[in-house]
Amino acid sequence: MRSFSLGRLAQYARYYYVSNSRFIFTILIMMTGIPLLFGLLTRDCNAVRDSVVAFYVFTAFGSALFATTAMRERGRKTMEMTIPVSNEERIVFMVLNSALFFPLMSMVTGVLALVFGTPFYYGDYSLVQIIGSLLKDYYFDYPFYLSIVLISSCCLLINLLARRRLFVAYLMAFIGFIVFCVMLGNILENTLFYDPEFNKQYFFLYVDSDKIEFWAKVIYSLMPILFYILSYVALRKRQMKW
Amino acid sequence: MITTNKLTFGYTSARPVLSNISLNLQKGHIHGLLGCNGIGKTTLLKLMCGIMRPQQGEVRVNGVDPMKRDVETFKELMIIPEEFDLPNISLEMFARVTSPFYPRFDMGQMRHYCEEFHVNPNEKLHSMSMGQRKKAYISFALACNVQTLLLDEPTNGLDIPSKSVFRRLLAGYVDDSRMVVISTHQVADIEQLLDNIVVLDEQGVALNATTAEISRRLKFGKASEDDKVIYSERTLQGDMAVMLNEYDEDSVLSIELLFNATTANRHAIAAIFNTK
């Protein structure tokens, strides 16, 4: 396929990481340093772990912004948009960057922050256990990772659609998401998961939690894909207006 | 080759910046894009490299619509914007990560250009002055050896010796397979370089002619009583005029005078060069 080359994708990734090395390095320092500061202030290993998780969620919101900054900045956008890279290569890089690179970096810096903070912690704790729970409950927990990917894919779409007033766009998307959740919840409760047999017996609405969990997983897994496809369409259609 | 056909563009649909621009810029030339402030020169360059969508009409770069972002087209197209921000790495490092996109990039050539401009390619780009950074970027762009090079106000921020180095390097850059389009206000800096001149005004293309054709049809200098004067202005050297060259006389083309003549007496110039 002429419009997609793995070699060019690797070249673009190299170009991106080297060009933004200072910025990425600053983010990584922050991701290690701020949890460490929490450790120093609270002397509590769990507080460090919680701040690491908070940064993990932050990467979900921030990664898409970092990937599209060059396309938005006045001094860089013309150069960025004329680099010989196809839309397909660009979107694949953005997806890999936001869904893999930043979560991975968050994990590495999180573990480093927990380890470097050892001299500050007070009381009984097991570092291995806390790191283990951090990895198991968050980084290697599929539903949690899926939530991170879902947020970052949605943010990528917002970043590609909104040229300016990004904060307003984020706010609108957040409100839209809440409305969507409430509506979806209502629809599912009143139609799909309503169990008539059960309700005949007990005279109240019953929600089948197994069915909800199943459908939630399906919807959660499909939504990032949908957002990435929409992001690709947005990149193709809107980049000329940037 | 760049062609535009009835190109119309505006940042709002009510007020077009460019309207009905039809051009055919051939390879092997250095094209000068001239016009008053806000007339749309930079916008036209951006349309040429596909980072803006025309409201009407079309642009083609070597027969391809640049908005399709075809990789092969962009391997042969580069723009140096008037304002740009390079990453905070050395030019050498920047070239190492960017040059793989441009198949004819030559690192030796870039180092040579840097030497000519007195720019240290190993110095961090953010620690350079604006002029140094511009020279560094020009060195990189020229070493990419692309077929189509678009330059927006390239001499802004360059010191006098650097302007002359720039002229020399650019003159050596163009051959039959390459073209350069320069948008500028500083016509004096590149006067000797241009071999095709495009003047834009509110109504579209006021003039599009080669310097040879301009010299054949017009003459520049002090007018005598017999001359058919199209435009004249008072200068320190006396009254300088743009006149019809009825007897194929030689004169030194003054682009500034030509530009002023075109804006002041558009219809006369358009009639001479058959510009619509």
Count the E strands of chain A: 0
Beta percentage of chain B is 25-35%
The greatest interface here is: A-B, 29 and 32 residues
Structural class of chain A: mainly alpha
Structure description:
The complex is a heterodimer of chains A (242) and B (276). Chain A has 242 residues and is mainly alpha-helical. Chain A has ten helices and no strands. Chain A has helices at 6-19, 21-42, 45-72, 77-81, 87-116, 127-139, 142-161, 166-192, 196-202, 209-238. In chain A, helix 3 (45-72) packs parallel to helix 7 (142-161), helix 5 runs antiparallel to helix 6 and helix 7 crosses helix 8 (166-192). With 276 residues, chain B is of the alpha/beta class. Chain B folds into two domains: 2-202, P-loop containing nucleotide triphosphate hydrolases (Rossmann fold, 3-Layer(aba) Sandwich), CATH 3.40.50.300; 210-272, no CATH class. In chain B, 32% of the residues lie in helices and 26% in strands. A six-stranded mixed sheet of chain B has the order 5-6-7-3-8-9, with helices on both faces. A three-stranded antiparallel sheet of chain B has the order 2-1-4, with helices on one face. In chain B, strands 10-12-11 form a three-stranded antiparallel sheet. In chain B, strand 6, helix 6 (160-173) and strand 7 (179-183) form a beta-alpha-beta unit. Chain B is globular and about 60 Å long. The two termini of chain B are 21 Å apart. The chains are: A mainly alpha (242), B alpha/beta (276). Chain A binds chain B through residues 2-3, 8, 11, 14-15, 18-22, 73-79, 81-87, 239-242, and chain B through 46, 49-53, 67, 69-75, 77-79, 81, 83-89, 93-94, 97-98, 100-102.
